[in-house]
Design brief:
- With 93 residues, the chain is mostly helical.
- It has helices spanning 4-42, 53-65, 73-89.
- It has 3 helices and no strands.
């Protein structure tokens, strides 16, 4: 059983890892948003509507198929549904 100091050090180690992962996630989400904005700009020229429910379901299904846990597929669908909602609401630059 680790003592209090060892437990604290272990917690801090995991928190540093989470901070690094968060940094990567923010970068990846911004890259994703950039691609989404480009697609949004191209859709009118391609005679496509801005909202594509089929594509959103494809994304949610694909993400679930990549899941090795520990998150449940329902958790990933909720996270990605929020990402997709925010991407739709992101103003074009």
């Amino acid at each position: 059983m680790p003592d209090q100091n060892q437990a604290f050090e272990e917690i801090e180690k995991h928190r540093r890892s989470i901070d690094e992962i968060d940094k990567q996630l923010v970068s990846l989400l911004n890259k994703r948003a950039g691609h989404s904005l480009v697609i949004r700009g191209l859709k009118p020229e391609a005679k496509m509507g801005l909202f594509d429910a089929k594509r959103e379901e494809e994304i949610l299904t694909k993400v679930s198929s990549m899941n090795d846990g520990p998150l449940y597929n329902e958790n990933l669908r909720e996270i990605y549904s929020t990402i997709l909602k925010v991407m739709k609401e992101t103003p074009s630059v």
